[in-house]
Design a protein that fits this description.
The structure holds 3 protein chains of 3 kinds. Helix content of chain A is 36%, strand content 21%. Chain A contains 10 helices and 9 strands. Among the domains of chain C are: 150 residues, Rossmann fold, CATH 3.40.50; 44 residues, no CATH class. The chains are: A alpha/beta, B alpha+beta, C alpha/beta. At the B-C interface, α5, α12 and α13 of B face α1 and α2 of C. Chain C: It holds the Pfam family PhnJ.
Chain lengths: 286, 365, 303
């Protein structure tokens, strides 16, 4: 990688012109889609423009929210950044990879998967997607540690215990199979696992959806503390303005695959401009 | 044959030596099965193998396979279309009277499954009374299956065509079947030279099934979770003779060097695809050496499922990796070898783990 | 005419009936690929042998492709030269290739073995052919073969490490018994075939070539001389070989060889004997270095 005179950027993660189309990939699929047309489905080709022209930067220690209803494309954007799927167009850069000069969208799949070791971690809505439920809580944390080269059993145990303590999982449960954990506990283990190798970028996909309200509140509290303490650059995807308000400083609103509004979270909550944002805020105010 | 095996043969009893032509003539389906599972057309060698294996077809197939390994591959057969198949039996369950006619031929299908308790003397006498072994007219107790196909015309009614057009062609003309996709797999995958793994092309799974263990193949098809509601219909089942041609190494021209018998099945079903109404029929294809309709039908049924569920790696895994007779029977045989070296290692770990547990209990007590 | 054509196409007729020369060449190519990429499983068109799959059909193909008339061939099963299977294989190859049957490990050029590495350290120029019933060390971790191959390709072995971690959590130690997984030259995880852990350290930095051949699974892999072969374990959990305190070979008194149990006079499995019968015999006739003083590495310690 020729990083001759490239100075490291301020941001930890940057997306530019990011797009993902299912079906016919050409520009003919774009016409007639987006919020102005009220659909993400191309009338000409039938392709689904799940996300288009998405751009944002996230700095270390900052959390960015992506909000929208289901089908708005917010999770697609997250999966494209995570590498779970490949974007159709655009540029994704990480400060940790060639000082941001590399478009990681263009890396081959093995190189892409390697980023998940120490550059990007993901917390999924469904803990089963991020955990092996037939392995102990400690074993789930041992996975990223051994992948990063840890070879001392005791040091792995110590590190896992430390992480579990931070996510407030009782150490007495460290050697229990993840399958025996409640939903909230599983989510905490998943968060501990995501933080194991101290990734500079953390992606959270509906991290509390599916949890009971009281359990969700506890997990949100924990996430807020962790985001403040770790200095990680976080992207939080949610349909719930309550979650976005609690965790993020800035937010983008997505609908039908496009960004319709962006700004500081508290300002946008106070004074939403786009009718759709107003609708979301009204729903959150309940 | 090893001295040991000879001793075993001697121990079987004092009956007469079993002649090879007795085996090929009277136990023809067994010989065919062995050739099919061995993937080698050699009736006399298969009869030898079956005799040496005391009638155990998988063991006989293993013998034949190992023998084939010893032979150099001198040439590769030219592709031959089964439109050239000279049928000795040909039925369609899709049409009452398909173009080209039904040719029932020899089969056990249409006679009662009554154990023939004719006294042995009488049976022998009748057999001796038949003019000559070359005679292919039915014996007194009719329809007994037998494979003297030196003159297969005997089995074919006058009016039937010896090389009838495929029912599939009729279906195609009627627009019922999607045209074959021309993509990929132009050069057949050779499973004897390259191990086939899930994701291998269709030619690999067809070859694997063609020489699969018949029982395993039948089970996989019959027991498959992938079978849709309702069953497929073998639109056409044929048994007949195909030429084997190779290019002459000097002239380069194709020369017919042998004839083989094969069973062929084309099976049809209309399976719904996600979000699509079934507008055309799915087709499955089965072909194996000899007369083995059970195998050809199972194979065609599985081929249909494999083609329909593209990328179903579980099913591909089972088809490509679990159907081979020598593989699976060999695996059961290997269990009978001594394993005490590993077994000691396993026991030692169990004891060590138990000791460790006792120590921990003492520590925490 | 036919005979002449045959010769033109396939070379001179081979010695009678197990394997043709073109196939042997293919197996040799697979072995060379394996040696070039230590620990990598090379797919090959495994042929049917006159033995059942699982009785050494893979090892036999490798051996047949390597032996010549002037080779000395040793075949052992579970350490024994005289086992029925070992004797049959040795005779079969000797009859086919005209090589000499050998039991002394020192004199053998090729040693085909089922589940043991001889006690006598191997030397430069020898080839050890190990029979492999299951070639894929990741098979018990992921079933999907594409995923197994991706994991090897990317050296993505964390799932294997998690398995070892979980083993210690649940059992207090790593319970992998025979066929303990190894890392070859820091790159590929490989099964050493179901040899006891006792034999695993012998593969490291060996003078000889080790060829591992799985006939049913149609894969060949190899460890060239002087290659690092390290059993997978955590830095603070030393690799343990089999040990039974106080046990010694009933015949030669050895405590520093791999011993297996056999029934004693009272019918219980109380007596121990060497599994390597050749080495045991040499010990008894003074043709091998005596056992080191008891307490050394006797049946234990860590390797």
């Amino acid at each position: 990688m020729s990083s001759t005179t490239v100075a490291p950027p301020r941001w930890a993660l940057k997306a530019e012109g990011l797009g993902r189309i299912y079906g016919v990939q050409g520009p003919e699929s774009l016409d007639g889609t987006g919020p102005d047309f009220g659909t993400a489905v191309s009338p000409a080709t039938g392709a689904v423009v799940a996300a288009w022209d998405i751009g944002f930067e996230v700095e270390p220690g900052e959390a960015l929210g992506i909000i929208g209803e289901s089908g708005s494309g917010k999770s697609t954007v997250m999966r494209c950044i995570a590498g779970d799927e490949t974007a159709t167009a655009g540029r994704i850069a990480l400060r940790g990879v060639g000082h941001g000069a590399v478009n990681i969208r263009e890396l081959d799949p093995p190189a892409r998967r390697k980023l998940r070791l120490d550059q990007i971690a993901v917390v999924y809505q469904d803990p089963a997607a991020g955990l092996n439920l037939d392995v102990t809580a400690g074993g789930n944390i041992a996975d990223p540690l051994t992948a990063a080269g840890w070879r001392s059993y005791q040091r792995i145990r110590d590190r896992a215990a430390d992480l579990l303590r931070r996510v407030e999982v009782p150490l007495s449960r460290m050697d229990d199979l993840a399958r025996t954990f409640s939903g909230g506990m599983r989510q905490r283990v998943q968060i501990a696992r995501a933080l194991a190798n101290e990734p500079p970028v953390l992606l959270l996909d509906e991290p509390t959806t599916g949890l009971d309200a009281s359990v969700a509140a506890g997990v949100l509290d924990l996430l807020r503390t962790l985001l403040e303490e770790t200095g990680v650059a976080a992207v939080v995807v949610s349909h719930d303005f309550g979650v976005i308000d609690m965790l993020t400083r800035r937010v983008v609103v997505m609908r039908h695959g496009r960004i319709v509004e962006s700004g500081l979270t508290d300002q946008l909550l106070e004074d939403p401009q786009h009718p759709y944002s107003q609708q979301l805020v009204a729903a959150a105010r309940g | 044959m090893s001295a040991q095996a000879k001793d075993q043969d001697a121990a079987v009893g004092g009956t007469a030596w079993l002649e090879l032509d007795q085996i090929t003539e009277r136990l023809g389906l067994g010989v065919d099965r062995v050739m099919g599972e061995a993937g080698l057309w050699a009736p006399e060698l298969a009869a030898r193998a079956l005799r040496q294996a005391h009638g155990d077809p998988p063991e006989a197939a293993q013998l034949l396979r190992a023998h084939r390994t010893a032979l150099p591959r001198l040439a590769i057969g030219e592709p031959v279309s089964t439109t050239e198949l000279k049928v000795v039996r040909r039925i369609s369950s899709a049409f009452r009277n398909p173009p080209g006619g039904q040719v029932l031929g020899r089969t056990l299908d249409y006679v009662g499954r009554l154990l023939d308790l004719m006294p042995e003397d009488e049976g022998k006498a009748r057999n001796a009374g038949s003019p000559h072994a070359e005679d292919t007219r039915p014996h007194a107790h009719d329809h007994a299956h037998d494979h003297r196909h030196r003159d297969p015309d005997h089995a074919v009614p006058e009016e039937a065509v010896r090389t009838p057009a495929h029912v599939l062609a009729t279906f195609r003309d009627m627009g019922l079947v999607a045209p074959p996709r021309g993509d990929g797999d132009p050069e057949p995958f050779d499973i004897t030279r390259r191990p086939a793994r899930p994701g291998a092309p269709r030619s690999a799974w067809l070859q694997t099934m063609a020489r699969a263990d018949t029982g395993s193949l039948l089970y996989l098809w019959y027991g498959s979770d992938w079978r849709p509601a309702g069953h497929e219909v073998p639109g056409e089942l044929r048994h007949g003779i195909l030429p084997l041609r190779v290019r002459h190494p000097h002239t380069g021209r194709p020369v017919t060097v042998a004839e083989t018998r094969v069973s062929e099945v084309q099976t049809f079903h209309s399976l719904p695809r996600a979000g699509e109404l079934p507008t055309s029929l799915d087709v499955g294809y089965g072909l194996c050496f000899g007369h083995n309709e059970r195998k050809a039908i199972s194979m065609a049924g599985l081929d249909l499922l494999l083609a329909h569920h593209e990328g179903a790696t579980d099913l591909q895994h089972d088809v490509l990796l679990t159907l081979d007779g020598p593989d699976s029977t060999g695996y059961t045989q290997h269990l009978k070898l001594p394993h005490h070296v590993e077994y000691r290692s396993v026991l030692e770990r169990a004891h060590a783990a138990a000791r460790g547990t006792r120590l921990t209990e003492r520590d925490t007590a | 005419m036919t005979a002449q054509l045959t010769t033109e196409l396939a070379g001179p007729p081979p010695s009678p009936g197990i394997f043709d020369e073109l196939s042997k060449r293919e197996i040799r190519r697979a072995m060379l690929s394996g040696i070039a990429i230590p620990g990598y499983q090379v797919p090959f068109g495994s042929r049917e042998m006159p033995v059942a799959r699982g009785w050494g059909s893979g090892g036999l193909q490798a051996t047949l492709s390597l032996v010549g008339e002037d080779s000395r061939l040793k075949v052992i099963d579970q350490g024994e030269d005289a086992g029925v299977n070992a004797s049959n294989l040795r005779r079969l190859v000797a009859a086919h290739a005209g090589c000499t049957e050998e039991t002394d490990t020192r004199s053998a050029d090729i040693i085909q073995s089922r589940h043991r590495i001889p006690e006598q350290p191997l030397r430069d120029g020898q080839v050890l052919v190990l029979q492999v019933p299951g070639a894929e060390p990741l098979a018990g971790i992921v079933r999907d073969m594409d995923e197994q191959r991706r994991m090897h390709a990317e050296a993505d072995y964390s799932k294997m490490w998690v398995r070892l971690y979980e083993d210690i959590v649940h059992n207090g130690l790593i319970t992998e018994a025979a066929g303990y997984p190894v890392l070859v030259e820091g790159r590929y995880i490989m099964t050493p075939s179901p040899i006891p852990r006792w034999d695993v350290p012998k593969m490291n930095d060996s003078e000889a070539i080790t060829v591992l051949s799985a006939g049913r699974e149609k894969r060949i892999f190899a460890v060239p001389p002087h290659t690092r072969v390290v059993p997978l374990t955590f830095d603070d959990r030393p690799f343990e070989v089999e040990r039974t305190p106080g046990a010694a070979c009933r015949l030669c008194g050895s405590q520093d060889t791999y011993i297996v149990q056999e029934p004693g006079p009272d019918g219980t499995f109380s007596a121990w004997v060497c599994s390597d019968t050749d080495f045991c015999r040499r010990r008894r006739t003074g043709d091998a270095p005596a056992a080191p003083a008891a307490g050394g590495t006797a049946q234990g310690g860590t390797a």
